[in-house]
Amino acid sequence: MVVGEIQGTGVALVTPFTQSGDVDFSALERLVNHVIDGGVNYLVALGTTGESVTLTKSEKIAVLEKIKEVTGSRVPVILGHGGSNTRVLIETLNDYDLEGISAVLSVTPAYNKPTQTGLYEHYKTFVEASPLPVILYNVPGRTGVNMLPETTLKIANSFPGKVLGIKEASGDLAQMMEIINNAPEGFDVISGDDGITLPLIASGGKGLISVIANAFPHEMSSVVNFSLEDRYTEARKAHYELLNLIGLTFANGNPGGVKAMLNKIGIIENVLRLPLVPVVKETENRILEAIDDLANS
């Protein structure tokens, strides 16, 4: 993967399931075609939004292979691969056929809450072992630890060309701007939150890895593309048209909201794996109303 391919709109693909709870590969094919036809720039497989923690090893391998097969050479594919045990993380990377994969998106370790030194050493060890470029992922609301800008920048400066950027989902724009302002050439900051993509790109960010783009790839890509082109009048209009739906995407947890949306537009069944469950009826009704509003806007 060359620097610049992670700019624009990436989509963190959901994993569709049948009513019996098995991976729905037909729906996965529909989803991949839906988002590529909708104009996204790259795909992220087996991320948090893909419920990867509830997939078996064989299911993960099969899901990745299906995504690669359907995608072909149309857009780059990035593999989501994170964990709380550095050694196991490196060993299990060998489970996958990495042919056709452009980079690895690797989230900070969750639950065991390493120090900033621990985070640096974790990524140092993983990056040195990875045969592919790495994108860092900071999402303290899920992992319980925030990777501070100085740690991110230390990693970026230690591995020029090997660490391509960071998916930043701390929700802290000041933190993101500190990274942007001090990042070395070729290290990009990517939004991990649909709702703050516009201000982050205005501050120098290079795009988004999106949840809502599973359902509305054209609409979310419009926000990103207009922003990257400095067309902020159009970007604001597209942003505010989606803002209500973005909020509903996360009202009852992720990926419950976007799976409800995908079900309503006929792409997948509205099935999640425990401990996750579908959104409550009230949220589902609000999602239906918001989809109608978007269609009429």
**Which strand order do you get reading across the main beta sheet?**
7-6-5-4-3-2-1-8
What count of domains describes the coordinates?
1
Give the end-to-end Cα distance, rounded to a whole number of Å: 37 Å
Q: Helix share of residues?
A: 40-55%
Describe the sheet with the most strands.
Answer: 8 strands, parallel
The radius of gyration is 18 Å
Strand content: 5-15%
- Low-pLDDT residue spans: none
> How many alpha or pi helices?
12
Oligomer: single chain
Total DSSP E strands: 8
CATH class category: Alpha Beta
> Any idea what the shape is?
globular
What is the average of the pLDDT values? 96
Describe the structure.
- Strands 7-6-5-4-3-2-1-8 form an eight-stranded parallel β-sheet.
- The chain contains twelve helices and eight strands.
- The chain has a single domain, classed as Alpha-Beta Barrel (TIM Barrel), CATH 3.20.20.
- The protein has helices at 25-37, 57-71, 86-93, 116-129, 140-143, 149-158, 173-182, 197-202, 217-228, 232-249, 256-264, 281-295; strands at 8-12, 42-45, 77-80, 101-107, 134-138, 163-168, 188-191, 207-210.
- The longest helix is centred in the C-terminal third of the chain and has 18 residues, at 232-249.
- α7 links the parallel β6 and β7 (188-191).
- Helix content is 45%, strand content 13%.
- It has 297 residues and is an alpha/beta fold.
- It starts with 7 loop residues before the first strand and ends with a helix.
- The model has no long low-confidence stretch (mean pLDDT 96).
